[in-house]
Amino acid sequence: MSTSRKKPAATKKPAPAKAAPKTTAPRPTPGAPLGLEEIKALIALVGREPFQEFEFEAGDMRFRIRKDGPAPVVHATPMMVAAPAPQPFPAMAIPAAQPAGPVDEPGIHYVTSPIVGTFYRASNPTAAPYASPGDFVKPGQTLCIVEAMKLMNEIECDISGEIVKVLVENGTPVEYGERLFAVRIG
Questions:
Q1: What is the pTM of this model?
Q2: Helices (H) and strands (E) in the chain — how many of each?
Q3: Which CATH number fits domain 108-185: 2.40.50.100, 1.10.10.60, 3.20.20.100, 2.60.40.4070?
């Protein structure tokens, strides 16, 4: 009886696993909205590169960054606001300070808008204005309408006096706290 011996099979050692390249920041999941850090990185990238305009789309967000003016122009949609990083471009101009508003006159009271909306002097285009310069008004009297989200909000006078000036054009947008009427107290 002959027995043959087989050489034991050589066992191979597994090759050492190659280390994955390290990344400095986690990559966003495809289709996920960009975070503030990714937006800042895009702005910084555009600032370093020689091209003048950059467009980027990710899911339902779209960015356009343009370097053709004294300050960067950043557009983001929908409902995404991108704040520019401090000094992302070397030629960024700082706008001059705007005056805070009209100077107060003694004896004049300003009726301001309590909401953001569209200013109307009358209830409809063919109606007479609620108040005009030279009219005497009293507290609680309607002066105008500010339309906000399809609601017509009557703005009432909060002091007795004479309307000196209407400070806003009919049909124009107004901001919260914007002066609408100048009223001479009396």
A1: 0.45
A2: 1, 11
A3: 2.40.50.100
